[in-house]
Amino acid sequence: MTETALRLPAEWEPQSAVLIAWPHADTDWADRLGEVEETYIALAAAITRFQPLIVCVADDDVQAYARARLSSARVDMERVRFVEIAYDDTWLRDSGPITLRGRDGFTLLDFRFTGWGGKFDASRDDLLVEGLHQAGIFFNSTRQAIDLALEGGAIDTDGAGTLLSTWQCLHERHPQASREELSAKLAQWLHQDRVLWLDHGYLEGDDTDAHIDTLARFAAPDAIVFQGCDDPTDSHYAELQAMAAELAALRTRDGQPYRLFPLPWAEPIIDGGASDGRRLAASYANFLIVNGAVLMPVYGDPADARAQAVMAQAFPQHEIVPVPCRPLIWQNGSLHCITMQLPAGVAA
Question: What pairs with residue 266 in β-bridges?
């Protein structure tokens, strides 16, 4: 990668904190709030084993409640900081800051957040980065507003100038733009010099239009972990097999094939509360890398243990920590979707 003043770090690089937003009765979690709170508590406990956690809360009452729940679960509260701010929902991977590291500080990229192409109201979430910056939780940083719809879950980087994304998602957000135009915009704003596109891969129950963080992720500059499907009778089989072939055809910067780590396929999980019995998107690729560990979603499925073994192979220097995430997929996301890591040095 050409040396530039700004760089988008890989997720495995040192972090100062992870950012989440606490679910409450005025978010879409209201109908199953008790269930999802248990996932947030487990996630907070796992994160604070390794690094600080910043928790967005809607008001004083939500903060007091979240503090009590976390304290009673014996979460290390010395590593928890609360910040009061308005938000529509809790998917901070997509509404939170994408942070560039510079030689002399940080730039918080504030892309437009449109509720995944206008599917949901996102007026408060679109102001989140600006509000967090004004709240003073970031050190030595400037905010850069960008008039382009982009969610953090739609991109993944190797930290050395290569970006991975899906054409379906970005084309859905910007139907008038060509692949060349979008590649140039992403390279410009994110300071990348290669954009690798996948044309295949999707999950039923996903309303992001195929975010890359549900499908395929860098584990190292020469390694990719991806969601496989080995069941020919499953509706995902053809698409995920085609995606696997695309990944096998990709090449690293020095022309070598990537080391590929296919994740096992969970049994179908159906939303019993939905009249149409809709299928939920149980992806193991929606993991979060923190300092010294990989937090991976598990769903109470026999494939959980096999997925953990694959992750241990892909991340041999990290502890693999399972986090129960079945409640999250009811709202069409998982562990990575509700978190945003902050690079070392940026979080106060």
Answer: none
Among 163, 241, 155, 230, which residue's Cα sits nearest to residue 201? 241
In-domain check, residue 106: yes
What is the pTM for the complete model shown?
A: 0.96
Which residue pairs from 250-259 have beta carbons closer than 8 angstroms and sit at least 24 positions apart in sequence?
250/196, 250/224, 252/162, 252/221, 252/222, 253/1, 253/160, 253/161, 253/162, 253/194, 253/221, 256/222, 258/222, 258/223, 258/224, 259/220, 259/222, 259/223, 259/224
Residues 331/88, Cβ–Cβ less than 8 Å: no
> Residue range 185-205: average pLDDT?
96
pLDDT in tens, 286-298: 999 999 999 999 9
* 62 domain residue, yes or no: yes
Averaged pLDDT of the chain? 95
Asked if residue 1 is part of any domain, the answer here is no
User: Is residue 153 situated within a structural domain?
Assistant: yes
Catalytic choice (169, 229, 325, 337): 337
Within 10 angstroms of residue 239's Cβ, the number of other Cβ atoms is 18
Q: Verify whether residue 56 is a known catalytic residue.
A: no
CATH label of the domain that carries residue 27: 3.75.10.10
Q: Residue 105's domain spans which residues?
A: 6-343
Average pLDDT, stretch 282-310? 98
The total of structural domains in the chain comes to 1
Q: Find out whether 155 and 186 touch, Cβ atoms under 8 Å.
A: yes
